[in-house]
Automatic annotation (TrEMBL):
GO terms for molecular function: oxidoreductase activity. This is Acyl-CoA dehydrogenase family protein. The keyword Cytoplasm does not apply. The keyword Flavoprotein applies. Its cofactor is FAD. It holds the Pfam family Acyl-CoA_dh_N. It is an enzyme of class 1 (oxidoreductase). Residues 145-190 are annotated as: Disordered. Residues 165-175 have a biased composition (Low complexity). Keywords: FAD, Flavoprotein, Oxidoreductase. Belongs to the acyl-CoA dehydrogenase family. The lineage of its organism: Bacteria, Bacillati, Actinomycetota, Actinomycetes, Kitasatosporales. It comes from Streptomyces hesseae. Gene3D superfamilies: Acyl-CoA dehydrogenase/oxidase, N-terminal domain, Butyryl-CoA Dehydrogenase, subunit A, domain 2, Butyryl-CoA Dehydrogenase, subunit A, domain 3.
């Protein structure tokens, strides 16, 4: 790995930082979250034009910049520094890769250029479970390990997650994260030549404003149900009700989506082969989230160091006290370590590395934000100060994309760090002793 960034990568970072410094100050962020869209639509269009933010990691043939995951992660680190409320995560890190990997040529040619231009935003709706569950970053259960031959040992069925990559099987890992049947969620049924969806999905990122919804739905009866992804266009589809939710972190808007006999089309064709590994999409999301969390932690630490230099107590800056110096030094080391992990995850694209990087970044962001509030003293908990915004982002992200122990457990299982020959427990797992 070459640790030095190219001139193009440095230009992306510099250009984006300049634009955000002018148009995404804390006052602008506070105002943007109160708009119906939950973000500054004018700024989003400006970022789509230069530096082409939504299409950084999209192929040139679809109008994108043709860069990679590392460039997108660098951009998200900058947006994380200012807590930018934008459709970037849901659109560029989740929706666009899923369409590129699973969509038909017609769907890719129709949707990707519009996502790249900023004309269209998108999101993934997971009716049951969490986004990390759906993308394979975490799995239900305590360890969620995968045994020999890719057989999932975390559930009751013991079915192989990797034995059938066709778009007709349970995607991506055979879980019940789409809901449906007796578990609620979203059901899909055929209606003439098309499909209709019925059900509800909660806590959908940017679900109230996205112009394109990728809905996970269950098809078939209870005994032979399968999970498919469907494309819903809320601007033209009937029976779509979207309600913005009150969330801990207003810069990360969420919504509840209700579908009542809503027209939809499958993403891809039934029976076709999946283009690329779904795990790669999850790894990309984790790397981007890790970089974003590192950016937020870095900015919170930067502000805290600046405050420690000017806040005086007993006739001297509090930053001159040894105890404060040690706390700030520990935070600096933690941020740099998390940054290195996030960069490596984005560069390598390995699912295990991405999961570990996300866990480390979330943990670091929470630690830095908590210390920032404490070291700012009384003003750190006031509504007017920005320290509380970083604390809310760190806390909310750990709830939405964690917990970190499950991220690490899944990464360890993916990397094969557990003994697969021991006689204890289910095959493929080592006996675990909790002290």
């Amino acid at each position: 790995m070459d640790a030095a960034f190219s001139d193009e990568q440095e230009e992306i970072r510099r250009t984006l930082r300049e634009v955000l410094a002018k148009h995404a100050g804390m006052d602008a962020v506070r105002a943007a979250v109160l708009t119906p869209a939950g973000h500054d639509t004018d700024l989003w269009r400006r970022l789509a034009e230069r530096p082409g933010l939504p299409g950084l990691a999209v192929e040139r043939r679809y109008g994108g910049a043709g860069c990679g995951l590392l460039e997108l992660a660098l951009a998200c680190e900058e947006t994380g520094r200012v807590l930018l409320p934008s459709p970037l995560l849901a659109t560029s890190a989740v929706t666009a890769p899923l369409i590129a990997a699973l969509g038909t040529p017609e769907q890719r040619n129709d949707l990707l250029p519009r996502l790249v231009s900023g004309e269209l935003t998108g999101t993934l709706a997971v009716p049951r479970g969490t986004l990390p569950d759906a993308l394979g970053l975490t799995v239900p259960g305590t360890l969620g390990l995968t045994g020999p031959g890719g057989v999932d040992r975390s559930g009751d069925s013991g079915r192989s997650r990797n034995s059938d990559r066709s778009w007709g099987g349970d995607w991506p890992w055979g879980g019940d994260w789409a809901g449906g049947g007796r578990s609620g969620g979203v059901q899909a049924r055929r209606s003439g030549d098309g499909w209709r969806l019925y059900g509800e999905a909660r806590q959908v990122l940017d679900g109230h404003s996205a112009g394109l919804l990728l809905i996970a739905a269950r098809t078939g009866g209870y005994a032979d149900a399968r999970t498919l992804l469907f494309v819903v266009r809320p601007g033209t589809a009937s029976g779509v009700t979207r309600t913005r939710l009150t969330s801990l972190d207003e810069t990360r808007p969420q919504a509840r989506i209700e579908l009542r006999d809503t027209e939809a089309e499958p993403l891809g064709l039934p029976g076709s082969r999946v283009r690329g590994e779904p795990a790669e999409v999850g790894a990309g999301v984790a790397a981007v989230l890790a970089a974003e969390a590192v950016g937020a932690a870095d900015r919170a630490l930067e502000r805290t160091v600046g405050y420690a230099r000017v806040r005086e107590q007993f006739g001297r800056p509090i930053g001159s006290f040894q105890a404060v110096k040690h706390r700030l030094a520990d935070l600096y080391v933690a941020v740099q370590a998390a940054r290195s992990a996030a960069y490596y995850a984005a560069w390598s694209g390995r699912p295990a590395a991405a999961g570990l990087a996300l866990a480390q970044a979330l943990e670091t962001a929470r630690k830095v934000a908590g210390e920032a509030v404490q070291l700012h003293g009384g003003i750190g908990v006031t509504w007017e100060h920005e320290a509380q915004l970083y604390f809310k982002r760190a806390t909310s992200d750990e709830l939405l994309f964690g917990p970190v122990d499950r991220l690490r457990a899944r990464a360890a299982g993916t990397a094969g760090l557990f003994d697969t020959t021991g006689p204890f427990g289910a095959p493929g797992e080592r006996e675990t002793v909790v002290l």
